[in-house]
Every structure is written in structure tokens, then in C-alpha cells.
């Protein structure tokens, strides 16, 4: 369900201030200030049987002021908390890129960020310790441009007030652009049967041009490559709140399988938000290595980096099923990969008239 913006802002600001107060209390008690965080590595990812997603394990690391490096990190955290608290108090927002540049105006040079990766990671740290998402900090990435198209009627809260939108009738061929914080959306009505998350823009356009969203009651979500958090969040909300199946349609290569994995099980980088972002019930529809063989699709040879990625996925906890083991081993055996658009070798309508209907029927979605 969508949340009241002012209540959410007040709660986020309070959490940030509490975090700063905790540092102060450590100082007052004569302790060296520190901040404990989960270790964000693949080896510290574990399967949570209660939520069916991958989360951080018990291993932690400590940011402590007992070293110059650690003291700098905590100083930067304090300055960032101050900036975010002021931003929330003024009901303003900023991008992750702007935060990096804004730090150059801070009065203490030691608090300034050396690059954007550093500021991005600090925002993630603050998410973890405060248990507040960056969206509720009013922080957003650069525009992702991800969209959806389908028989969905919604209400969106904007700075210019509420607006009601039908995601077919009230949008152009580009579809409805997913906002940075999808929790500002209320779903009003729909005629959808399932959600189809599509990796590439070319395939998304093919499905819309061929009327796949109309013919099969499909909400087509364009992932735009590795999906942004907003894209994964709205997909999860559509699944949970409208009880719609989710299927993911990508290229047939190891990097695209990881796109599916991030939708279904979460990613190492955002494992602290798996319950918020991941949809473990999501299914993979293709392109499968078996499709490459069965349909004799045009292919490219696997590069060394592809082979290494596939071998890595054989031990990746997100791909520990018989299905994925068989598909990955087959791909390593044939040494080939294929794009979604390779289905066009059998005609422009093949994907919407034959491939997807047959696969989705096999999977029990249609």
C-alpha cells in the first residue's frame, strides 16, 4: 500500500537524528564512536527460509574512529546525516550524484567525498543502520527511464497533487514512467493476468507494437537492463497487492540471468532490502540455452568473461536448482549465447504468437 508522505518523512528524519544522537552518546560516555554493519560480500549472503530471499548473514564489520580512516568515514556520515535531515525538514530531494558534488561545499575538507562510489556506499550504510530506505531520505538515482505498459489504473502522488493514470489509455507508446519512489502509487483497478518483466527496449517495443499487453492482459515492465530499485519495488508491489504472477524475459547470457536473479532474490549490494525489493515467486521465461538449441537461434560465441560468469553462477546461491544447473551446463557445453531479438529470425510475430504463449502455457501462467 502507498504511504502518507509526511508521516514517512518525519519517521525517516527521526531515525537519522537518533543515529547522530547515538554517536554523541558514545562520545559522552567516553567511548570511541563506531558503527557496525553487515559484511557486504557474496560469502556473507544466506538464504532466509521465512522470506525466500537472499539476505546478509551474521558477519559484520565495524566503522570505528579509532583510526584516521575510520574517523573520516564517521565524519562523512555525520555530515551526510545533517544534510539529509535538513533536506527532509525542507521537503526537498536530491540525486546521488548531487550529494557527491554538494559535499565539496562542506566546511570540513575531511568530510568531502573522493568519488561518487564513496558517497553511494555511505547512503547504503545509512539505510542499513537506520532501517530507512534512501527513497524515504528523498535520495534518488539519475533517471532510470524504466516504464510499464498494461491494463492498470493507478493514482500517483506528485508535488503538483494527485493524478490518476491508466497505463494504456493515458500514456503514449513509451508507457508509464515508473517514479523513483513507487510507494507513492495507489493501485485503483486492473484487468491484468500477469506481469512480464522484459530486459531490452527493443523487445519491449515489439511486445507493445504487437498488442501483447492487450491480447494477454499483460503488464509489460521494461527492466532497462539491470533493473533499478524502483522497477523492482513496483514489480514486487504489483505481485503482492494484485496477486499477479511475475515472469522475467531476458537475453540468454549469464549477465541476463543475474538480472532475473536480482528481480527474484535480490542482489549482494541491496541484500538489506531484499524483503522490500525482491519477488522470490518470479519465474524465468527465457531466453534459455535449450531455446538456442531447439529453435536454432542466431548466436554469438561465449567470451572468456561469459564462461567465468557462468561457472560462478553454478555456485551462486540464487541459481542452486536443478533447472539452472542443467541450463548453465548446457550453455557451457554449446559455447553460445543469444539475444531476445534473435527470435526475430523466425519472423517478427514469432515471439508474441508462438514463443511466449507456448512457454507461458508450459509454466502455468496462461
TrEMBL record:
GO annotations of cellular component type: chromosome
Type II DNA topoisomerase VI subunit A all-beta domain sequence ranges: 142-191
Residue ranges of coiled coil: none
Catalytic activity: ATP-dependent breakage, passage and rejoining of double-stranded DNA
GO BP, sorted A to Z: DNA replication; DNA topological change
Co-factor(s): Mg(2+)
EC number(s) on file: 5.6.2.2
Tree of life domain: Archaea
Top EC class, one word: isomerase
Gene3D superfamilies: 3.40.1360.10, Winged helix-like DNA-binding domain superfamily/Winged helix DNA-binding domain
MF terms (GO), sorted A to Z: ATP binding; DNA binding; DNA topoisomerase type II (double strand cut, ATP-hydrolyzing) activity; magnesium ion binding
Binding site for Mg(2+): 199, 251
All copies of domain Spo11/DNA topoisomerase VI subunit A N-terminal, residue ranges: 72-138
SUPFAM superfamilies registered for this protein in UniProt: DNA topoisomerase IV, alpha subunit
Active-site annotation: 101
Subunit structure, as described in the record: Homodimer. Heterotetramer of two Top6A and two Top6B chains.
Family to which this protein belongs: Belongs to the TOP6A family.
Purpose of the protein: Relaxes both positive and negative superturns and exhibits a strong decatenase activity.
Record-given protein name: Type 2 DNA topoisomerase 6 subunit A
Organism: Halococcus morrhuae DSM 1307
Gene giving rise to this polypeptide: top6A
